[in-house]
From TrEMBL:
Alphabetical list of InterPro entries matching this protein: HGLS, YdcJ_bac-like
Gene3D superfamilies registered for this protein in UniProt: Uncharacterised protein PF07063, DUF1338 (3.10.180.80)
Source organism phylogeny: Bacteria, Pseudomonadati, Pseudomonadota, Gammaproteobacteria, Oceanospirillales
This protein's name: 2-oxoadipate dioxygenase/decarboxylase
Entry cofactors: Fe(2+)
Molecular function terms, GO-annotated: dioxygenase activity
Signal peptide: none
Enzyme class: oxidoreductase
Lineage top rank: taxon: Bacteria
Length: 453
């Protein structure tokens, strides 16, 4: 039983995501500018499109719109990752999905810590894309051992947060005062440090192997490297970024603009070069932090995802080197083969939907019909696309690369190792497709039960 004096994990996550946003806005002023631009474009989009506004309100999406969507960090060791799992659990965030970025030439594998049930997602869907550095992929023994030694000497968690995590685990929750303390202690792990823990030569040696290795190894903690609000019109925000003083990445990642948005579209402003003081008092710079935006669409079934992956693969050959406008035009052409009405996405089982009774359905008595499409046609049942809550490895690689100065290393490829990731995590990652399928079938069951009495 939950203790009435305990603050819910949803509430702790909400407080944390707001505190994180405030910290990041103070640390990275351009991020504040990005938030203003996104809010402005969202307002204009809703004004232009009252049907969209009504739909969002009708499906409880308005609250979600204004709150932060995701952030990302990169950690260096199994112990750090396992402790993060426990830290995020306090906020009802569990690891979902395994992403192999070695395929894209980046020496990490990742998961997303996020809430999973409907109520939690509606409250605040905040997620953290979390990557674990794969030192085992560094070829030079000397460099690998040097990096491991440096990482061995740091503790990215405060004693206070360790104590509060343990308390949460033993008492099954935290009271209001402890919840606030937890938020401020946990935030310390994600803070930026202007001082590196290593000298400039060490930084440069690690940087020469891969910029990301220097980013993970040379600092006291895994600074949050971006936060990502949700926009209702990513094309418009991309277009307006330069006027607002931001340097957008070259192309928007993910599917093209569509009537029925699918999965996830993302873009970012490029990482800023920031002054760093290295051990031995030498000045240098490091480039890691940026701002990102995302526009989310419906989650795809395995069949829909296979179609997405095939079309994306086809488009990649044709979009290489194109400007964003041209890139989007070609994508739209290739994706003409992906059905673009909710009815087709549903009938062809390409996407996940939540089913619920319409007003007429609630009024109707028992009906003999058990076929959901027929019940939809009769106006008794309506559906809503289930929002995709996860990430896309090809897009993530594009985001990594545009912020790492194109740094990649083909030699890392072909090294997916989910077992090693789960061993480091000391837990399993959930399968995102199973989560969407379970939400869809639970909604079907309850609709049919209501109508069949
Ligand atoms: C993570 C990049 C991936 C996304 O939205 O796909 C990501 C990173 O740069 O650490 O955040
Ligand atoms: Ni991101």
């Amino acid at each position: 039983m939950s203790d009435p004096t305990h603050v819910s994990s949803n509430e702790i996550r909400d407080r944390f995501s707001k505190a994180m946003s405030a910290m990041y806005q103070a640390e990275v002023p351009q991020y504040e500018t990005l938030l203003e631009l996104v809010a402005q474009v969202n307002r204009e989009t809703l004004e232009r499109n009252p049907a969209l506004a009504e739909r969002l309100a009708n499906f409880d999406e308005m609250n979600r719109l204004g709150v932060e969507r995701h952030g990302a960090i990169r950690v260096g060791s199994a112990d750090e990752l396992a402790m993060l799992r426990r830290l995020f659990a306090v906020m009802g965030m569990v690891p979902v999905g395994y992403y192999d970025l070695s395929e894209a030439g980046v020496p990490v594998h990742s998961t997303a810590f996020r809430p999973v049930d409907d109520e939690a997602l509606a409250y605040n869907p905040f997620r953290v894309f979390t990557s674990l550095l794969r030192l085992e992929l560094i070829e030079s023994d000397a460099l690998r051992e040097r990096a491991a030694r440096i990482l061995d000497h740091r503790d990215i968690f405060t004693p206070g947060v360790r104590e509060l995590i343990a308390r949460h685990e033993s008492q099954g929750g935290l009271d209001d005062t402890d919840a606030d303390r937890f938020v401020s202690e946990a935030l310390e792990t994600f803070r930026w440090h202007k001082d590196a823990t290593v000298d400039l030569d060490t930084y440069e040696a690690l940087h020469a192997e891969h910029r990301l290795i220097a980013d993970v190894v040379c600092f006291r903690g895994p600074h949050i490297n971006h936060l990502t609000p949700r926009t209702l019109d990513i094309d418009e925000v991309q277009r307006r970024m330069p006027q607002a003083g931001m340097n957008p990445k070259d192309v928007i990642e993910g599917p093209p603009r569509r009537d029925c948005p699918i999965l996830l579209r993302q873009t970012s402003f490029k990482a800023l070069e920031e002054p760093i003081r290295f051990a031995g008092e030498r000045q240098g710079t490091h480039t890691a932090r940026f701002g990102e935006i995302e526009q989310r669409g419906v989650a795809l079934t395995a069949k829909g995802r296979a179609l997405y992956d095939r079309l994306l693969g086809e488009s990649r050959r044709r979009t290489a080197g194109l400007s964003n406008d041209e890139h989007q035009r070609v994508l739209a052409e290739v994706f003409a083969d992906f059905p673009d009405t909710e009815a087709e996405l549903r009938r062809q089982e390409l996407a996940f939907f939540e089913y619920r009774l319409t007003e007429a359905g609630r009024q109707s008595g028992r009906v003999g019909e058990t076929h959901l499409e027929a019940l939809i046609e009769q106006g008794l049942v309506e559906t809503r696309p289930i929002t995709y809550e996860d990430f896309l490895p090809v897009s993530a690689a594009g985001i990594f690369q545009s912020n790492l100065g194109g740094g990649q290393n083909e030699a890392y490829a072909g090294n997916a190792n989910r077992d090693a990731f789960e061993a480091a995590l000391q837990g399993k990652v959930l399968d995102e497709l199973e989560l969407y399928a379970a939400r869809e079938s639970a909604s079907c069951r309850s609709v049919l039960q209501a109508l069949q009495g």
